[in-house]
Specification:
With about 260 residues, this protein is α+β, with helices and mostly antiparallel strands. It has two domains: about 150 residues, Endonuclease I-creI (Roll), CATH 3.10.28.10; about 80 residues, no CATH class. It is built from eleven helices and four strands; from the N terminus they run αααααββαββααααα. It has a four-stranded antiparallel β-sheet. A hairpin with a 2-residue loop joins strand 1 and strand 2. The longest helix has about 50 residues. It starts with a helix and ends in a 6-residue tail after the last helix. The relative contact order is 0.08. The mean pLDDT is about 85. The structure holds zinc ion. Zinc ion (ZN) binds next to helix 2 and helix 5.
């Protein structure tokens, strides 16, 4: 169910990006070039195929497949650069929302990887580059970077959606950590309480509990009555400070550490 929603969300991002109609002719050409072979009848999804048709340009269509001119990145304006990156992402990119956050990668032919990574770096996104099964894989890892990249490519509402999904997940992770920490605290309280009960039992058996101060003895009896209570709870029940409860247990422990009849 969750996985399906995430796939839908990723699809929404792609639909969002593919729906952009660049008003300038320069950007349309740049996006076509970014789409690469996907602009020439090799689209991997109907969404991208329809985009390719919308961006079609009769002059470019006369070129043989695979010979679309590359964008002159160095000379390109920023609007054209983001159109090109959008096209590249739509034809070669994939986005996944995994437990740790978001993951975005572009898989391109070997010769193209470092060029693409360089362009991404220049556009302000720090990619990593590696080779997988004879192809270059350019990856954006940090969630913030990925969201910024998608916005840069022109994605709108769908990015907000991705963002809120990731924030929700972070909150869930935080909540789980808090619950786990509380569980650990409880375990520590229970272990400490068992130790204290044993000490109280020992002092009671050899008669030394009666020799303890009134407050120390009251703390010991209260602990017996409420083995699972925290120090703060014991303090509340007795109307004394938490520090005083702690001190009482220290006294009891010290007494128990002495051989009986040695006080
Ligand atoms: Zn342009």
């Amino acid at each position: 169910m969750v996985k399906t929603r995430e796939r839908d969300l990723v699809q929404a991002v792609r639909v969002d990006l593919a729906a952009i109609d660049p008003p300038r002719a320069c950007c349309r050409a740049a996006e076509r070039s970014g789409l690469g072979t996907a602009a020439q009848g090799r689209a991997r999804s109907p969404v991208v195929a329809r985009l390719a048709i919308r961006l079609a340009d009769p002059e470019a269509d006369r070129r043989p497949a695979g010979q679309l001119p590359d964008l002159d990145w160095a000379a390109a304006r920023s609007h054209c650069r983001s159109a090109w990156l959008r096209g590249r992402f739509l034809s070669a990119g994939s986005l996944s929302l995994v437990a740790a956050g978001a993951h975005l990668e572009l898989v391109v032919p070997m010769g193209e990887g470092s060029e693409l990574a360089g362009r991404l770096r220049e556009a302000g996104f720090a990619p990593s580059l590696r080779v997988r099964r004879g192809r270059s894989v350019v990856t954006l890892k940090r969630t913030e970077t990925i969201l910024a990249f998608l916005r840069h490519c022109g994605a709108g509402a769908s990015v907000l959606e991705v963002e809120s999904r990731l924030v929700m997940r972070q909150l869930q992770g935080h909540l789980n950590r808090v619950l786990n920490a509380e569980g650990a605290n409880l375990e520590r309280t229970v272990a400490a309480s068992a130790r204290q009960m044993a000490i109280i039992e020992q002092l009671e058996v050899d008669g030394r509990l009666a020799e303890a101060s009134d407050i120390d003895r009251a703390v010991a009896l209260e602990r017996r009555a409420a083995p699972e209570a925290t120090f703060s709870e014991l303090a509340d029940r007795l109307g004394i400070s938490r520090a005083r409860v702690q001190r009482a247990f220290r006294h009891l422990e010290d007494a128990a550490a002495q051989p009986a009849g040695d006080i």
